[in-house]
Design a protein that fits this description.
Length: 701
């Protein structure tokens, strides 16, 4: 009961240094609450009212908590805080106080808020008095007011509990809300038991105080003589109003819980759509019987809890399905790659209150490619991607896209072709989703990495010295959009991954931070990688830990690939580059690839010859045919070790050797090829041809 309309206290400026003797005559205690120091001074009469000896009280407000029940303390704190906030000069309230013997009595307090010249509250001075006689004199009004207050309090508990349950996502969350100190204990319940109906049985999911578990009740049949079984069978609440009634009604259970000193209990069926999904029991040790109002409130509370439980069960079921789908869509295992250490990680986003959204379209993959050798560095395609959305549909699209992209890469297509075909596939999938992706094809024998990007963030490379940098890669449109906007293509960038260098591919969930742009996020990530452990697994773990600490509503996929040092004996491999007509950048990248491969394969002495011949063959293909050229380098073993260069085009016309005149500027191409190579020739390839040449190179030492 609040008494905010009480008249303002009239006090002298030095009060309570010299309290008014009239207070003592009227059996009132006084207090002076220093808000700055946090001290609550009381006179001798106030100590008597609180049933405290002077030596039992240290002047701190919280030390009064043994005398003020939790519900009363919350109400008083709220009242005082509101009066301070809204500028009131005084407040008044009735509250219940717990005596030394455990009994409760009504008390009244009135406070005057003293503020400084700025309006800041500095002290609260006031009185406290025993209101028992006053309320006894108004017994009828007091009883009605008490009942109303109790109803409001219980209704408030139901409202607060219902509001808290609205945020519960799992069954355990529901249990935690109900067991919280601000939950059902405000209704006076000593403990809570709860069970869920599963396959005709009741499985206990919450029990009372520690040590109160009854053997044999973890899973019970609905036809067994237990109160939760009864309310599930009958769909009717069971209110037990005395220990005698409990013992008579449930003789099997009662002997096991006598130590809990139970005096009454309320068992409620948890019903949703006329079907029982469980039962709940509230056990009391300080009351007998239930008023009609209390029964109605408990039944209403049971209905709210049942709805929350069903929602939590649906969430957990969908989460299990989503996680299962996510695990099925991502690779079960990452293949080992000769010449590299690889680590992958995935972190699902957790978006509060949204069923099925703990899953997304982020994915990674590692695709072994033809051309590598077990004793040397392998050829591998590394993929990172992100399908738009956070739901099961995004995961399903991701799974299909991952599979087709892996298939295109394994067939030996160039990186640009892999990306273009994947984009067409997604466009034809009849979905409104698009995806960003980055595909890196690495030859670990040479360290040459060809990268193609479809709307995704750039990769990062950490050097052997620990420095980390972002590698800008020219990109095309996200997958699924390029087919709509024409054949815009995907440019290919080439970079070298030296021994000891680490390539890192990730989705934007690891980079984007609230309030920061992408460039800042990439710089922060580079700094984090530079300071992280060198081991790829520890590095990946560290990055995911940071993502967990940061939280966020986006999932994270991560692939880390570190090229091993030169102690690995390298036998060679296969590289391929697509060169489009009218694209000088592609021709430059092809030359870069050739130089890097020749050096890596131990043929530095013939580097100029190989580059010159390859450049001649590529130029001929672009000048004398229509369409692009595909350049392939490989090392042939067995007998003499040879480096083979192949240039494939779409024309079936064979090259012709021509004699160049003294002043001619062309016609010497095939003469040059014949002079500089150890062997060359032409092969038919479907609707086109392949011009090849070979160079003998030294064996590995």
């Amino acid at each position: 009961m609040a008494d905010r309309g009480a008249s303002t206290l009239s006090v002298p400026a030095d009060w309570p240094a010299h309290p008014d003797p009239i207070l003592a005559l009227n059996r009132m205690g006084s207090f002076d609450w220093d808000l700055d120091a946090g001290l609550f001074h009381m006179d001798a009469r106030a100590h008597e009212i609180f049933d405290l000896r002077p030596e039992e009280y240290d002047g701190r407000p919280e030390s009064l908590s043994p005398r003020i029940p939790d519900a009363e303390a919350v109400r008083l704190d709220t009242l005082v805080a509101r009066a301070i906030k809204d500028g009131s000069e005084n407040y008044g309230a009735y509250f219940r106080l717990r005596r030394r013997d455990g009994g409760l009595r009504w008390t009244h307090t009135q406070g005057y808020i003293r503020r400084d010249e700025t309006g800041r509250p500095r002290r609260i001075i006031g009185i406290v008095r025993d209101a028992t006689d006053e309320l006894n004199a108004l017994a009828a009004r007091r009883d009605e007011a008490t009942l109303d207050d109790a109803r409001r309090e219980q209704t408030s508990v139901v409202q607060l509990t219902t509001a808290a349950l609205a945020h519960a996502r799992t069954v355990q969350d529901v249990i935690d809300v109900l067991k919280d100190t601000h939950g059902l204990t405000h209704l006076g319940a000593t403990s809570l038991v709860m069970g869920l109906v599963e396959a005709g049985r009741i499985r206990l999911i919450a029990e009372g105080p520690e040590g109160s578990f009854v053997p044999g009740t973890l899973v019970t049949r609905i036809d067994e003589p237990y109160p939760m079984s009864e309310v599930v069978r009958t769909l009717t609440p069971r209110f037990i109003e005395s220990p005698e009634e409990f013992a008579a009604g449930y003789p099997v259970l009662w002997p096991h819980i006598t130590d809990l000193k139970i005096t009454s209990a309320a068992y409620l069926p948890l019903i949703v759509q006329a079907r029982p999904i469980g039962a709940m029991g509230l056990l009391y040790n300080d009351r007998r019987g239930f008023t009609p109002e209390e029964r109605n409130i408990l039944v209403a509370l049971g209905s709210s809890i049942a709805q929350s439980l069903q929602r939590a069960m649906f969430y957990e079921q969908e989460k299990d399905i989503a996680q299962g789908l996510q695990q099925a869509m991502l690779p079960r295992a990452i293949p080992s790659v000769p010449g590299a250490d690889v680590a992958v990680r995935y972190r699902a986003a957790t978006i509060g209150g949204s069923l099925g959204r703990d899953i997304g379209g982020d994915w990674y993959d590692l695709v072994p490619l033809p051309g590598g050798t077990p004793s040397g560095g392998g050829r591998v395609g590394a993929v990172i991607g992100d399908v738009q959305g956070h739901d099961t549909h995004a995961a399903a699209v991701m799974g299909q896209l991952r599979i087709v992209l892996k298939a295109y890469a394994a067939e030996g297509h160039t990186p640009a072709t892999v990306m273009a075909r994947a984009s067409v596939f997604l466009h034809e999938l009849d979905t409104d989703r698009f995806a960003t992706c980055l595909y890196a094809e690495a030859d670990l024998s040479t360290g040459v990495v060809q990268v193609v990007r479809a709307g995704h963030i750039d990769p990062l490379v950490r050097g052997a010295d620990g420095t980390c940098r972002r590698v800008p890669v020219p990109g095309g449109l996200p997958l699924g959009l390029s087919a709509e906007f024409g054949s815009l293509g995907y440019p290919v960038a080439t970079l070298e991954l030296d021994p000891g260098h680490t390539l890192l591919l990730c989705t934007d969930g690891l980079v984007e931070q609230p309030g920061a742009d992408l460039d800042d996020g990439m710089r922060s990530l580079a700094e984090l990688i530079a300071a992280a452990p060198e081991d790829v697994r520890k590095l990946a773990d560290r990055l995911i830990e940071v993502a967990e600490e940061r939280g966020g509503d986006d999932d994270v996929a991560l692939l880390v690939l570190r090229r091993r040092g030169p102690d690995i004996v390298q036998a060679g491999g296969r590289l391929q580059q697509h060169v489009a007509p009218g694209d000088p950048q592609a021709l430059t990248e092809a030359r870069h690839m050739i130089r890097a491969a020749v050096r890596a394969w131990g043929a530095e002495d013939r580097c100029d010859e190989v580059e010159l011949v390859a450049d001649e063959l590529i130029t001929n293909a672009l000048m004398h045919t229509e369409g692009a050229a595909i350049v392939t380098l490989r090392v042939l073993t067995g007998g003499v070790r040879r480096l083979r260069v192949e240039v494939e085009d779409s024309s079936s016309a064979l090259p012709r050797r021509r004699e160049a005149g003294e002043s001619g500027v062309s016609g010497r191409g095939l003469l040059l090829v014949d002079l500089l190579t150890d062997a060359w020739g032409v092969e038919a390839r479907g609707g086109g041809k392949c011009v090849w040449c070979e160079f003998e190179i030294p064996e590995w030492t």
